[in-house]
Amino acid sequence: MGLSTRDQTQCGELEDSSRESENITFQILKEFSSATLEQLTLKPQRLSTSHRNRVRMAPVTDDDQKQRMAQLEAKLAAARKAQEPKPRVDEHYSLANQAWRMVIELVVGLGIGFGIGYGLDRLFGTLPIFMVLFILLGLAAGVKVMLRTAQEIQEQKLAEQADENAKAQD
Question: What is the reported pTM?
Answer without folding.
Answer: 0.45
